[in-house]
Amino acid sequence: EKELTRSIRKLFELTDVDGDGLISLDDFVLMGLHQTKLHAGPQKPRNRHEEEKVKEAFVQRFAHEIDASFQAAPYYKYKEYLLRCVDQLHPGDIKAQSVTLNG
User: What angle do CA 15, 32, 73 make, to 5 degrees?
Assistant: First the structure.
């Protein structure tokens, strides 16, 4: 469980682009866009329309999963969000959850 907590803290720090200790909507969308590009691999670059669709999906995810009023999220809220995500993928399997969070 310590490894899982370390992984979450690391992701929080990477996502907190401006280093203010909060995950803003902009931080979240930017990280989501980068993750999407990373997982797409060496495919053709996304066009602006596809990129806007990805951004909107992350805006909606932030509203539904983190804060409906789009307020920046402190660590504990982001942690709860990530734990829900990995628990949906790997219910009760902390080792698999840690691997997922570490990429």
Answer: 45
